[in-house]
Amino acid sequence: MTSRLLTGAMAVASAVAAGFTAWALGEGALGLAVLPVAAALGLVVGALALTRFGAYALLMLAVRPMVDLFKLSGPTAGKAGVDAEGVSRTLDPSTILGVLFLIAAGLWLAARAREHGRLRTTPLTVALLMVGATALVSALGADKVPNSLLEALRILTVVVMFVVLEQLLGDHRYARRILLAVYGSLAIVVAYTVILSLTGNPPAEVKGSFVRISGPFAQSTTFGRYLMFLLIFGFGIFRYVHGRLRVALGVLLGLSFVFLLLTNTRSAILGLAIGLIVVALVQRSARMLLALGLAAVLGVALLPAVGDRFAQLAEARQVGGAPTGNTLAWRLGYWSEIVSLANRNPVTGIGPNMTQFQTDEAKKPHNDFLRAYVETGVVGLLAYLAMMVLLLLAGLRALRRAPPGTLARGIAAGNLGCAVAFVAISAVSNVLSSVATLWYLVAFAAVAGAAPALEVVTTEPVTSRPVTNKVEEHGDSGLSRHSA
After folding, report:
1. Which residue of 147, 292, 317, 395 lies most exposed, with the fewest beta carbons within 10 A?
2. Signed CA dihedral, 407, 409, 415, 418: sign only
3. What is the pLDDT of residues 234-243, one digit of tens each?
């Protein structure tokens, strides 16, 4: 009897939701139309978070890029929206997902701290928490508190994701599960982009004279940074992946490289080059350096738009905020203009995401170091610099601890390459605005911190006795092996 009542109630609720969605679409109210679907998905995801939080965190990593397909507020990276931007963005599924994640993670972390007495922490954890805390404090003093607080919460999701993954990695089996979830997300993104491209409707945006692939993201720059991080780390671990998983990873990396070039995002392309050079030097791979140079030549030859985009840096004409042209020259002028904004509140800044509301050009700083100073003050800048330094030091520490010829070594190399690329491109772009991509940067950092403790098979021949890989017993053998 109870099951019949529940089935009937679900049927009625579904019918009402379908009717409401049809009415909202008829009225042109897209925001209202997605509410029933969002509510249903929220209930499902909420139930998973409360019952199996580890699986929930992995699911978030796997599906996060595709959530931007349902973005209602439109692209806002690099520029200011209308005064109601903060209100409209609260209806975005990515915002709702982020809030639910913060709530679920907060409850889980509190329960874990109570059970174990304390949480696993590292100096990098403390620095990230400081970045999140300074963002929240600065947002409370902003001229537009809702807009600024929303940005602070987005940054906080990155911090909390790192803290959560650090706790999960107490069980070393999660290292490979996290990597599978991350590259599962890449498989979904690449499949989506390939299918739409084959049907003649590639997901792209037009900026000036260029058509730039954007994938499932609202902007091509976000897609470029996402691919940059996953390519650098992917090439770091590629030689240690075996069998069909290696073939699949190779296909994903090849397609991702092409799509990165098609995003025509200069900072991401340069960041990829920097990161891969780091990986090649760490792994002492002359072949990787040669392949990188060959890929650069072929990329410019086969995709002339890439060369044209970089050639614009030599133009004398400054394009004040236009989507193409000598944007580097424009950046230099804009930085000198906005640095004085910090004088209004040098201690805690004007608030996250507030620069674009305080300038005539209504644009973000395009420099995360300057942004940290202007928007979160001296305190926020110190926290941000500490995070950068500790991110690099953690990468170097993981590299020193990783035995040569092991998957842990590949993880450490990939993570260090991502960290160096992140620091480099942060000086000329709004990487902190690409919160969806930073989830994967901190995921790699968390895995690298735990990787040296993993039981991995080395490339050295074993003559006395076989070496058993504990993780292989759990069915993740593809990621536990390496090239000979």
Report:
1. 317
2. negative
3. 999 999 998 8
